[in-house]
Amino acid sequence: MQRGRGRGGYSDRGGYDDQGRSGRGSYGPPRGAPRMSAGPDRYGDDRQQFSSGPPPSARGYGGPRPPRRSDHPRGGSGQRGAPRGNSGEMPPPQFPPRGRGHAWRPRGDIGGQQQPSFGLDDFPLPKSGEKLLGQSRETSSERAPSERSVSSDHRRASEADYAHKPDGSGDRISPSASSDSLSEPARQKKSHPILRPGSDLAGALAKLSMQRSIHIPSRPDKGGSSGQRCEVIANCWDLKLLSKAVLMYFIEPVAVYRLDKEKKKVELNLPPREKRALLQQVVNGLHREVIYDGGHAIYSEKPIPGVTKDGVTKQMNIVDPLNRDELLLDYRIMEVQTVHTSDVANFITNSKATSLDMPQDSIRLLDCILKTICKGSFESLGRAALFYTDPVKVVHDKLFSIHKGFITSVRPQWKVRVNVDMTCKAFFTSGNLADVMYEKYGDGIVNCSRQMATDLRRIRVETIPFYKNDAGDKYSRRFTIHGLSSESAATLMITDVNQTVAEYFDKHHNIRLKYPELPCVKVNLSRDVFLPMELLNIIPYQAPNAKKSEIASEVIRCAAIRPEERFRELDTFVREIIKSSHPLVKEFGIQVDPKPQQIPARVLETPSASFGRQQSQLGRGKWMAPAFFHPASAEGVISWAILSLPGDRNAQRHQQMLATQLPSTAQRFNVTMNRPECAIIQRADLQHQFQKLISQGVHFILLVLYDDLNYPAIKRLGDLQTGMRTQCVRGRTLDKPNVIPNLLLKINGKLGGINWQILDVMRNDELVMVFGADVTHPAPTQTQQVRQSIAAVLGSVTPDLMRYAVVVRQQATTEKGNKTTREIIDSMDSIVGELLKAFCRNTNGRFPTRLIFYRDGVSEGQFENVLVEELASIQRACTALRPDYEPAITYIVVQKRHHIRFRPMNPRQRNVDPGTVVDTHVTHPREFDFYLCSQEGIQGTSKPAHYHVLYDDSNWTSDALQRFTFFLCHAYMRCPRSVSYPAPTYYAHLAAFRARDWVSDLDKPGVLLKGGRFCVHESQITGMYYL
């Protein structure tokens, strides 16, 4: 994984992140703050506009409130917060009455404070044939079998057997039946069974019940209506094809053999990827109608002779791609199932199908067909990506090249459509190994053996044909680089023949080396087997070894294509599909509409914010902060110090500049800082210096770095060991503009301040807690060391949703080869419980009545598992705190790894405006999801975030949730910009990557853990150290 700080934020060392954007938002102020103006954006720039109208005390709060009869469609004519006349102003995002899936009983005292009381009287009961407010659109008798609903008899038995424990504790299960399937007393008490926490049987039954009762919420309306209406073009094209039944087969290589002189089989130890590549010869030997995905799936309309559902192992003579002797391939093939091309269209028209019923096999078949049609002159990599063979850029000094390509995928939206997008990817530079090294190092190459060994670690190479088989024919071999020799080919001796490497190849292979002065390459891990560099070619399309941040910055530059140009290239690619004469086009009747989708969209109004004594409506996408809402120095003068590590002649100048400019700039933001102590120290003195400054009462240390080597140690020392707030900045960035204000944004947040407060998120007595959760997975390691996934979960601890507490843990090992990936967050119940307690400590002992989760990093195929396990854990955490504590829960997945893009109708407009939301046509046909582009497009084409509601107890409307989410994107404290997804999710991403930094240079990261959790210093848990 890369250490990039995410799109839109400033890195901890100063300056923008490698992706050019920044983070997230938070929620608004206490009640009584001014109401937002949510009509069309009046200015469209970053000018600060001040709210007008009556003082806060005279204006309505417009936020969450106890549900009333007037909330029901039949409950009354008045509606608080309705649009005012024809002024174009819209209300702030109202918190909806709780109840989708819950029948709320009266509540009493929670956490020592009197809470609003809710009961069935707050929701008028429906007439005969009418559904309760918040009830799922289908009753249990109407649901499709895929929803796995538990029968009412079984549900009542579950309540009788497990709910009525003496202590009333246990796991809450997502409701699956309509309210009228419960008796009146049961409806008043609770709508889900309760299991005792800590019981293995209870946990198993809870998980089983959840799996049998999952029902992803339907869209509560026909889409939102607030904001200024417009139209955009999406990179989706209508797709039509014939309805056909296709047999799917699974194929895998078992073993590869060669025959020795005595015609005995000798198994070759080939990497899995090279074994799979040999399967193409098997596919070529089958009938012409076979479609192969390049991995393990084969599709055919006709049965493959001799292959059954039980599977069969076959052997085939294959041609050696390296020109060795003829090889034998053992492979196993079996019939799996019949896949129908019409399943995608049927999914769209089935009103009861959910995302859990997505016809993934049919989608994979259609993706495979389209990819086969489009291959042509492209290199096929992955399931859907096609790359041009010629790179668009070669970065010689970093040893990687960037290739441009296209990704196609079939999407079941409101119609069957194909989503086409451009992509760029970096690969290790291919070519002759010696030539590539000379291109980077030039004439000084002979003195760079150590750096070359680092550059080439674990890279796969192929020899030129100089090996000979029994018939005397030359062939090649492939190896992995395991290091370089300490001597050159001209001096490295082969002891068995008492010759140098150069002499050996001259005498035995008639090859006179061109570069005998270069070191040789070690190609065997356990034995000293060396080959000259110039006899090796780098195998194309390998992952580069350069720093991830360096790769990302170059890839972003190549991918930063203006929307008009991007869509023009996509149109050209789609027209090639339309004009294709490939037999599969006719066979499956493939028709692609030549015009991309032109769809309705809306631009949401920007929120208002408070900067201390000043209030103004924020600019669209960016704004200027005239002052901090809550300066960290409100309690007194900030004491600080500047430390530098030796290694740069500008260190003293940089310290003097910071000592002068930072306090003077801070004064403009109402932050008072004293004159700092400055020192240039050795790394060995870091811990002693930290302890010394702590004893002197220093609040934070600013460290100027001239390389990245000391960063992990500094952050471990500050975040884990001493609790000292630290802010690092790269020396080379200090001469760039706006560095000082950007540093102050992060320093104020780390010291407990609030840079600005969003006024239009929510305002009333009901407490709401917002969570952000993310899991970062390890990059493939170049050694046998196993790195594990890291999970971070944050929860707001203040009613204005601006301050967050965080728990970071290392995921349990799920090892597969040398990769460990686990997306479901371990111990979510204990994490949520701790964060709820942190919230309670900051709100005079009160618990939140609504929990809103923004969950990052979950793909569609993981919806069911994540929802089942994590939602049950969240509910279990609540009932563990108090048996009667049942807050409304909304669980939203935030997806960024998709390829939906929008462009304005007017090409001169470049990108869509921040706040552009799309909730029809390219979304799920029935479920509650939407695309929101909340950030300003700094370069290239803006990428919207996709939000999918998987669970909702709060009866959100489309307008309310979209505005609430958009406003949260304005509360990210690292930069004065609206960012690409909500602040808590962005903060979770930063916290997970900070943990990755802690362990990046450690051989045994377990020393930082206790019970799987990172031992963050107690003063840092709510300190937002990751900013």
TrEMBL record:
Record SMART domains: Piwi
Domain PAZ: 440-540
Biased composition, class Low complexity, residue ranges: 171-185
PROSITE patterns, A to Z: PAZ, PIWI
Top-rank taxon: Eukaryota
Ranges of Basic and acidic residues composition bias in the record: 139-170
Domain Piwi intervals: 700-1000
Region (Disordered) location: 1-198
SUPFAM superfamilies on file: PAZ domain, Ribonuclease H-like
MF terms (GO), sorted A to Z: RNA binding
Protein's recorded name: Piwi domain-containing protein
